[in-house]
Automatic annotation (TrEMBL), chain B:
Gene3D superfamilies: Spore Coat Polysaccharide Biosynthesis Protein SpsA, Chain A (3.90.550.10). Residues 26-129 form the Glycosyltransferase 2-like domain. The keyword Transferase applies. Keywords: Transferase. This is Glycosyl transferase family 2. InterPro entries: Glyco_trans_2-like, Glycosyltransferase_2, Nucleotide-diphossugar_trans. Pfam families: Glycos_transf_2. The keyword Transferase applies. It comes from the Bacteria. One of its GO terms (molecular function) is transferase activity. SUPFAM superfamilies: Nucleotide-diphospho-sugar transferases.
Amino acid sequence: MRLVRRSKRRVASTSKRKVKPKKQPLPTRSIAVKTTSNPYLSLQSSTPLPSISVILSAQNEEDSIGAVLSEVSRLPIQEIIIVLNGCTDGTYGIARTYPLAKIIHYPDPIGHDVGRAIGAKMASSDILLFVDADIPITAQDLMPFVQAIHQGVDVALNDINPYLSTFDRRDDLSRCKEFLNRSLGRRDLTVNSLTAIPHALSRKAMETIGYTYLMVPPKAQAIAILKGLRVEVCTSVNVVERNKIRKTNVGQTNPVAELIIGDHLEAIREAMDICGSRLALTDNQRNHIAARRNRR
Amino acid sequence: MIVKRTRKRSSRRTVPRNTSTTPYLSVIIPVMNERRTIAKVIREAKKVHPNAEVIVIVNGSKDGTERIVRQQRVKMLSFDKPLGHDVGRSVGAEMAQGQVLLFIDGDMVISHRQLRPFVQAVAKGMDVALNDYSGPTHKRLVHGVVLSKYVLNIMLSRSDLKGSSMTAVPHAISRRALEVIQAQNLSIPPLAHAMAIEGGLQVEAVHAVNVGRMNPVRVRQHKDPLEKLIMGDHLETIDWLSQKLGARGGFSDFTRKREIVR
């Protein structure tokens, strides 16, 4: 694992790296100047400004990462931790042009969730904002996540409900996410999940959950809820229709879907190990219920 | 941990009749205070197959249901205490002699024409023939039972079943299925459902009967005490599944390299 800072123009070559990233020209798009005087992008609070880390995992995202980094650079942040893995394109060349970027490089794909967990481990700030390298989201849309954590929320989730259809037309993963929340007594969270980005964590959340658990986002979510962290939705950003279509994430049976279904099983298993096999659903006496059911 | 419901065996009376030949079909009907519907339900059950035994499990009934059932030519088990439908089915299955077992409820009159497809499917080699009914799903926030049934099927890699489940009646099972599932496990229907699928049995939704419309309004009220019970049953089933197949229920980690995070 290597931590490469922007200030080092050249990366010491490593024998493990299979493909050396080509030196890329500066992105044509100009980098917006970070400004805390921008009314959208300043934190409205009398308490001292918290530090913010942005964390993203990237695997061959040269088409989108420039736009993603330009937007997050407009936020009042201290660092952008970019976990490059399995990159064979010019992603690195683009990423290293951003002054706040701290780049961690793995030659092989490690999975987005593992990338985020590593990024979280490296982050030094009070607020951890997780974004995707393939979906540029404007700084204005990201600000509510930071703001929510600043105001005391521990886990700030994106509310995708407005962009979803009725239950019968949703995919299996939305159903798993909703079931996990409801089983943990958080019906109000509906389908919203740490599996989706963007989301933000407080340092307290990171330490309470443990960064290794971030590798399995539904498990992290279950632990956050069971340990009494404030888990809340804070805004609605439409990412539902913006996911890239890849051959691994489409179709009725696809590896990404199976991964996430397995994650939900693992999350439920973890929750059961903590608080018993019926979770938030108290085991009323079946007889008692039968009697109530038949009361007229 | 899966906890079997305890059965109250107080004042158990068996009234076997018509046991001269081995029946082909056993129709199992748990009933509790259903004097308005039970006679009609039994009448339809008898018409499903010429060689059928009808087993009625009367439990916790104080409204004369037992007297009505006694007048019918059926096998009756009677319990003073309420058992719940699921335990009733489990008790009925234990004494069933048929090659095919059909499960219906005492509070819902379903025509024999609507029941036959389930029995026919099992006769043709199906092990578990389910009602192709998922409950009301064309809405944004569904009932917890609907959600649970969908998710259990997803976790069993059978999302093609949508919300069809042994939690709902009518459904029919083969004797082979009963041996795989074992009668006592029918008292937790989602567990029985998961055991059937995991046991390699042929499980399909064969015919749609809209039981939601037939359910009395009392179980469709907003605060449904059964919702938590049935969701809890599904969680216990997921518990069983993850103990049998591992914490991830057999699903892979894809490209995730966990060893990197230390």
